[in-house]
Amino acid sequence: MTEPLHSRATTALSPSAADLLCRWVVRQAAAQETWFLDALERLQTSADERALHLFLGQVPRRLGKADLELTPQDLTAAHTVLPGWSPLGWSLDGAARVAGLLTFRGQRPFAALFEDLVRTADARELITLYRGLSFYPEPASLSTLVGAGLRSNMRAVFEAIAHGNPYPRDHFDLHRWNHMVLKALFIGSRLAPIVGIDQRNNPELARILLDYADERWAAGRVVTPELWRCVGPCADALGAYAALQRALTGSPAERLAAGLALSQTDTPSARHLLTSVPETAALIGTGRVGWSNLHHYEAI
């Protein structure tokens, strides 16, 4: 027997992503709470795609487009449902739409429905659709459509897949993963919010990024400090010490990034380079500088 949504929104002890989204939306829905819950009930019991499309179209008008308000406890709950998932930056209407998609039980494979939605979506709707990737039925079946999203020239759409979204970590093959990380650097998108950036690091990616850094320097262009995060663990195998030594002479953020990369490699060469920059090494040693806050030093 299917549990009523209004109950799931308030009492689920081991909530799913749909439960959490429903709970968060209800908390902000005010006078629209009844409409929202009734609409989800209809989606749960009806396989009518027209009802889904009507719901998706009405959500922004009914609930508005405010940011989704989240507490630290909400973020912890999200991480419990799926490690790495971060709903920070989601909108209220986006959360409601994904809740609707997760609630709907249609007759067609979800991938076919998702393809139709993506084909007719505007940028804001694409962002919403891609943010829910990890939780849709048969997520691996969405691979082709995700590839199209990664190729988007809209940075926000790319980041809906790449940032705070466990889908790439869990479903991308090596080639697509490496391509996503390289594109993030190419368009000036941060690496730190990519879920699994350290777990999915690999020698091939490190080699690609080291070559990319050399090309940037040869063209007289700056190298994004975060790049060294992926090179560091493979620095010895790639012979990347000369490049890291060069980065140690760069901006404060570049010096810290190179220092962090060297601290990931416990070799005599890495330790020797770190001792050549005692101030950087000391700052890293305090633990106050890491890959998650490196961007704070990029403007210094």
UniProtKB/TrEMBL annotation:
What is the superkingdom listed in this entry's lineage?
Bacteria
Q: What is this protein called?
A: EboA domain-containing protein
- Species the sequence originates in: Salinicola endophyticus
Top-level taxonomy = Bacteria, Pseudomonadati, Pseudomonadota, Gammaproteobacteria, Oceanospirillales
